[in-house]
Specification:
With 110 residues, this protein is mainly beta. The chain is built from 1 helix and 6 strands; from the N terminus they run E-E-H-E-E-E-E. The model has no long low-confidence stretch (mean pLDDT 90).
Length: 110
């Protein structure tokens, strides 16, 4: 698969989820804490790939492609727009090529 840099035309925030106390009523809630942002491209799965992952932990996930960045390995959550995702799988391209891209599999938080 060949990706060109201009295909990375969407922005995602990478970070963690922390439990913080609501200052108004004292209740605890989970909040996304951004560490950094990266441009990404969406990867579309074929129908065959969709059928193969049915019934597995990868069902109902999406894959995004980012420029190779080792900081992604330590990340637990990704926010795209107002939607928060758990980072399920990180597949880095550690070749010595000039342009390398990592595949990041995300699952929407319930």
């Amino acid at each position: 698969m060949t990706i060109t840099p201009f295909e990375l035309n969407r922005r995602a925030d990478f970070g963690t989820v922390q439990t913080v106390q609501n200052s108004d009523n004292g209740s605890m809630k989970k909040t996304f804490v951004k560490a950094f942002s990266l441009w990404y491209a969406s990867k579309t799965r074929t129908l065959n790939q969709q059928y193969q992952i049915q019934g597995t932990a990868l069902e109902n996930t999406k894959v995004i492609i980012v420029r190779h960045n080792p900081k992604v390995e330590a990340i637990k959550a990704v926010q795209i727009g107002d939607v928060m995702y758990d980072l399920v799988s990180y597949s880095p391209d550690e070749s010595n090529n000039y342009n390398t891209y990592d595949f990041v599999t995300l699952k929407r938080r319930a």
